[in-house]
From TrEMBL:
It is a multi-pass membrane protein. The main subunits of the menaquinol:cytochrome c complex are a Rieske-type iron-sulfur protein (QcrA), a cytochrome b (QcrB) and a cytochrome c (QcrC). Keywords: Electron transport, Heme, Iron, Membrane, Metal-binding, Transmembrane, Transmembrane helix, Transport. This is Menaquinol:cytochrome c reductase cytochrome c subunit. Belongs to the cytochrome b family. Heme c binds at residues 191, 194-195.
């Protein structure tokens, strides 16, 4: 027997004796459990995305965005309503402890604490367990946030005056006689640029809601008011009279 025959030298078991190239296993080793990323998996992703995209497009066509009338910054009676995902914060501001003198509490402090607690949940409960029952801190924070959001959203929906909201934002077609001589003067004097083609307002206020009399309208057209400069009207006295009468009558008819 020769020395060393039948003997093997064993080194560190963590180092393989034979280095093999890093080649992934063949898909055939996992029948029915995996597939090629290209084109099989990616094609399925595209097909699912296309279905959702077509679905969203169909919804936008069937249910267009509910538009309201042109915003009027002078209307203090208008009650705005945020989108559904902000309704819980909107409802929070209705309570005494989060509104009025405590608006900062409802808009910054309370939401900041709530979202900050959710962000810190992984560090407040760093346990390895995956079951919710064994992660009481993280589970409690998530349930508290979910229940609060759902409750406040529900309260906002059931307590909101939807009929009043529909009326205050309703688009009403103004009754304007665009064939009249007064409207011709209105267009000729470039009133449309500020007050709109139907007197609905634009960069200037709406004339349909004006409470001015014929005489006061004539005075404003000559002497100006607010952002309207003096001597904006360049026509004759007869044209001024017809223009003021047209505006006063149209405003009265639409109120």
């Amino acid at each position: 027997m020769h020395r060393g025959k039948g003997m093997k030298f064993v080194g560190d078991s963590r180092i393989p004796a034979q280095r093999k190239p890093n080649i992934p296993k063949d898909y055939s080793e996992y029948p029915g459990k995996t597939e090629a990323f290209w084109p099989n998996f990616l094609l399925k992703e595209w097909m699912v995305g296309a279905v959702f995209l077509i679905g969203y497009l169909a919804l936008t066509i069937a249910h267009p965005s509910p538009l309201e009338r042109v915003a009027d910054p002078t209307d203090a009676t208008y009650t705005p309503l945020p989108d559904w995902y902000f309704l819980f914060l909107y409802q929070l501001l209705k309570y005494k402890f989060a509104a009025g003198d405590y608006t900062l509490v409802g808009t910054v402090i309370m939401p900041g604490i709530a979202f900050g607690a959710l962000l810190l949940a992984p560090w407040l409960d760093p346990g390895p367990e995956r079951r919710p029952a064994k992660r009481p801190v993280a589970t409690a924070l998530m349930l508290l946030g979910l229940i609060s959001t759902v409750y406040l959203t529900w309260e906002s929906v059931v307590t909101h005056d939807w009929e009043k909201a529909a009326k205050q934002g309703e688009i009403v077609e103004a009754e304007v006689d665009k064939e009249s001589e007064g409207y011709a003067i209105y267009a000729e004097q470039s009133c449309i640029g500020c007050h709109g083609d139907s007197l609905q307002g634009g960069s200037g206020p709406s004339l349909l809601e004006s409470q001015q009399t014929k005489e006061s309208i004539m005075d404003i057209a000559v002497n100006g008011i607010g952002g309207m400069p003096a001597n904006a009207f360049k026509g004759s006295d007869e044209e001024l009279d017809k223009l003021a009468e047209f505006i006063a009558e149209t405003a009265k008819a639409n109120q």
